[in-house]
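Retro notes
What went well: the complex prediction finally ran end to end.
Inputs used:
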Amino acid sequence: MSESTATDRPADAVGTSQYLTFCLGEEEYGLEILRVQEIKGYSRITPLPNTPPEVKGVMNLRGAVVPIIDLRTKLGLRETEYDRFTVIIVVTVGKRIIGLVVDAVSDVLNVSASEAVPTPEFGGGLDTSFMSGMARIGERLVTLLNIEHLVGNVSSTASLAV
Amino acid sequence: MSFDPTIYHLAFFEEAAELLVALEAALLTLDARAANPEAVADAFRAVHSLKGGADAVGFEGIAQAAHALETKLDLHRAGTAVNGAELDALLAGADALAEMVATERTGTPAKLPTATASPVPTRTVVVTVTPAPDAFRAGLDPIPLLRELAALGTVRRVGLRAAHLPPLADLDPETCYLGWAVELDTPATDAAVRDVFAFVGDNVAVTVAVPGERLADDGGETDAEALRFARFLTDRGMVRPEAALAALDGQRATRPLLGRLAIQAGYMIPEDVYEALSRVEPGELFGDTAVSYRLLRANHLQDLLKMQRRQTPSLRDCLVSAGAIGRADADREWAAFAKLPPPVPPARIAGEEPDVPAPAVEVAVTTLKPEMAELLAEFCTENEEHLETADRLLLVLDANPTDAEALNAVYRAYHTLKGGAGMLTLTTVKNLAHEAENLLNLAREGKVTLHAKALDLAFASTDALKRQVGFLRRWLADHEELETDPALPALMAELRTFDPVTGRSDVPPSASVPAESAPEEHAPTAGRAAGGDKETVRVDKGRLDKLINSIGELVIAQAMAEQEFIDLTRKTGGHSLALPELSKISRDIQELGLSLRMIPLQGIFQKMARLVRDLSRKMHKPVHMALHGEETELDKTVVDQLGDPLMHMVRNAVDHGLESPDERAAAGKPAEGHVGLRAYHQGGSVYIELTDDGKGLDRDRILKKAVEKGIVAEDQRLSDAEVYALIFEPGFSTAAAVTDVSGRGVGMDVVRRNVETLQGSIHIRTAVGKGTTFTIRLPLTLAIMDGLLVELGDDVFLLPLLSVVESFRPKRSDLHTVAGRGELVAVRGETVPLLRLHRLLNTPTKQTDPCEGLVVLVEDSGNKYALLIDDLLGQMQAVVKSLDANYQSIEGLAGATILGNGRVAMILDVHGLAGLHQRTGRYPAVERPLPLLATGCVP
């Protein structure tokens, strides 16, 4: 889905898509901007019992109970203390609203078709299904995330945890 | 968007396939039994629907063929038998239709079917073709036209009208003197026949007469007969064909108009006649139209048709007066003709009316359009209510058949339904409502007492109408083919033939419902109970939910504002006058908002009373049903989900709970069983009690069965409550088990499941030989929940108050362990398993010692558990939010809510926790690594 929207962009954008980029440690990731509903500072969340570790809990988003997922944990990175840069990116996946905890957001990136490269073969058992590709912008290499794949598994892994 | 007809074609093909199957099935039933008006009606409906569908999507050929078949079938709708040859013809027609549909489907454009090409059902038409005298000069050659006409079917004969032909000397070769009368067997419609002459304009006068089919205004059933007689005469050479045709024309011309007769007879007023005339569609008959628009009664139409026939000179008279045949010859021929085996219904030859009037009124509605959806939905909602009312009041009438107010109210309900259905052209519904209305009218006029057969019919009509409304609902949901009710034709026939004089009771009424409360309470207030006096506004449910959600948020925001104000003014001090006011108003709004969703249990109770009545009759067990507290209100979502479990329970109570009259007599009980349904409020919950005075539950037999089934170990000791709870086990719901265990069990697992979904609980009290009482406890609403705020570690959970029994701090001596890990707490003489909440939820805790923390005794479907928590913080009303809206549901949690400080708190689900405990409790309790390392928050 995300790929198709990326490639099906109208001609005026000449095959470019906009991505919100954010950092997890030294690495930079990009999310399709149309998915992003809002960006919130990290505030206290209520833990959700018996859920996988990346599910930090739920928060109250104007009356809606929204699950919060730590992307570091989800991607198997080392966990860090949350600080004043820590933000929650609220995204919509289908009809669901989900919050993603990331270290910091950096900027909005126009990625043209020529800059996007397909996901390379990493080998070594690295699961790349959550990636929709990579973009090289000057010196920077941004991993473009496939949000459906990324949080689509949230439900399935959660059921294993009980 | 461009219009794509193929979509409609596809829909038609699907519909047609079903209809063709139905048609064939109906026709094959005809084969089995001789006279079968129902099957004919079914077949007719199928063909009629097919015709309508084909017409709508532009398959004229199919429509025409269907029309022809329909005409054939119509002859048999009055109830005459279909003989073998006719049936063959009908089946061949059905096959031809199927072939035509298939042809359209596969894309080969089907030509107008000719009789030689496919054995399409045909009818006989007489086409007179009279070219204008100067037709030749206008370049018209009638011969190709006649050939084209002949191509429409099989020409039986062609009569030449040469009356105007002058002597040869005077003949002008450029003038057309001739005319033709063509008797044609054709599947084509009148319109198609006329189409042949579409391009000749005024140069040719064309009439198409359809012998055997009544035309608008003439309604003469003798048409077919007259035509056959004419043919009979011409075949025998008694009359020249021209003379016969002329006589036929003359006969038709002298026939009085139905409308005029109706006015003369006082059956219709002139305005109605005009209205009916304005509504006659091409191909429709005046009489049928008037009947279907309720401008004329069906039996009056029959009278009128008889009258018309009497006032029409017979063909014999016409022939005699035209000098075509002598009087004596005519009478002799007629006598010979009348002796012939009738190819058309004998009833018509004998001039007698069939018992069942046969206007085309039972035709299924096929004209539902998506644009009508909104109106239909409104119609459904409104009339579901009316029908509920009718049902309820019929029960009142059961107790007191002369209750005028109830009679009027039921009559009104049918009448309103009829009006709405008429407006929406829901012919089936309208006709049924009309018949039911007639029945009620008879009762209102005192001609019929609504009991026994009459009351059953009224009930059956209400049910059938409900089914019809249900079909509409389903249509609204899927926009597919409107279902038809197989029981409807029989009911219609019964209603129509219901005779107030002979309508005696066949079966003595055995259920007197609701005798206890009805005569004193119901009867006088029936009108008001119908809810007609209260003015209401109908609101879309989605909007209401949104409103209630917003109110919930308002209450939360208000609480947050209050908290913030307190925090801000803690140091500086200060008062707010507005805030307390705001808080009061928002509480009021919240209460009001919730009350919007509250509906009384009346409807569902009434259904149960009805169910008892039906069961009582079916099983020949006299049952007295008493209802109490129907006015008790509950959230609509709860009430909606309550119907199923209650139904199962009531059915069980009557079926298995109550003994047969003989058994009761033997046990020294009154023959009439007693079933009571009662609702009341108590402590923020609603209780619904179902009581019967039957044989009660047999503890030993249940236990024995449970051991047999392996649900319970043989040496297991169970409390009474635990034993009775066994009947809710799915294993107990098989039929065999039920009879063995003295009943109770059909669907009882469904009952428990449903009640639990509603966050309620169910209890059983029973005494062998005395009866059983089921008590369902339900929360007032599912949207709001009263809960205890429970502290566990740094987090706050909400424990539904409904499941809380008490809280206490156990003494050391009250604690026991089994095998080092199964922990038990003794409380008030009971030993209850201890559930460590933090362990079940894998959350951090402050207290691991039950004697230091607090234990809450909770209850889940009769089982008690002691829940170890850190502390109790208070009580609150929580707006329940589901977790699976954005995530998924989690075992042990019933959902989430938002606290006054804006934070989310989880709502505990005792049933789920018990389940978690059962699974984790079997294994050594391993403290899992807590996954919440990073919950430390930003300072």
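What we learned: Chain B has 32 helices and 22 strands.
What to try next: split runs per interface for comparison.
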